[in-house]
Write a structure and sequence with these properties.
Length: 242
């Protein structure tokens, strides 16, 4: 049986201030949970309607009823298990060839998808402005489909970070050089801005070159692309040349 205190604590983890207070976040579903032992994430508690299906040995798996799972899950249709994990201390990786910079991304689905794209293309690190949505937001974790385990996501002040950054920085914008005509170096950063406002002026001042995805439609009336969709197109083009 889950205690009322445990339920209340887990339910509070949908808010950033409580994730920071307890230094905990939630991972849902056996498919992602089974990857945790091979990562640097430590499981604090594991609750499952069917602990026998947990494919790794753990003394922390506690059997609960489906009704209890609904109380602690953030999903509309809860899955089989919920893992309460400790938030590890993150360090920035210094020697990466290509990295993504996110300047004020607010939508959890966009961040989760971009993390998944980074994992797909073998990009080890995403550097986020401090006001970018929290990676441990339950919607972000779910959208990554487990890719958060393999991509280093670090939050920092971008202006301070770029003071010591020596490689070219490419910004994405509606006005810029055609990505299909752009030559990308071996090491660089790729910046994506806020969904509504784009890259903020203070970050834009640090960018080496702006690039854009050209529109091919006859009407040319499409206003913009979703930021995660843009990331997929641009990364696909970059890696097609490698």
């Amino acid at each position: 049986m889950l205690t009322a205190h445990t339920i209340k604590t887990i339910q509070s983890l949908d808010k950033k201030k409580y994730r920071q207070k307890y230094n905990l976040f939630l991972v849902e579903g056996n498919k992602i949970i089974k990857e945790l032992p091979n990562s640097d994430y430590e499981i604090e508690n594991l609750f499952s309607v069917d602990p026998e299906n947990i494919t790794f040995k753990t003394l922390k798996a506690e059997k609960i009823l489906p009704n209890d799972l609904k109380k602690i899950s953030f999903l509309q249709h809860p899955k089989d298990s919920v893992a309460v994990c400790k938030i590890p201390e993150r360090k920035i990786l210094q020697d990466v060839k290509i990295q993504i910079i996110l300047d004020g991304i607010q939508d959890p689905g966009n961040l989760g998808t971009i993390i998944r794209l980074a994992d797909w293309f073998g990009i080890e690190q995403i550097v986020c402005s401090n006001d970018t949505v929290d990676i441990y937001n339950p919607k972000v974790i779910q959208a990554t489909m487990g890719s958060f385990l393999r991509v280093n996501v670090f939050y920092t002040d971008l202006e301070e970070y770029f003071k010591d950054y020596q490689n070219p920085v490419f910004g994405t914008d509606m006005n810029g050089e055609n990505i299909y005509e752009t030559t990308f170096p071996e090491k660089f950063s790729l910046v994506f801005g806020n969904e509504g406002n784009g890259i903020r002026p203070s970050t834009e001042d640090l960018i080496t070159k702006m690039i854009t995805i050209p529109r091919f439609g006859k009407s040319q009336s499409t206003e913009s692309l979703n930021v995660s969709m843009s990331a997929g197109i641009i990364l696909g083009e970059i890696f097609s040349k490698k």
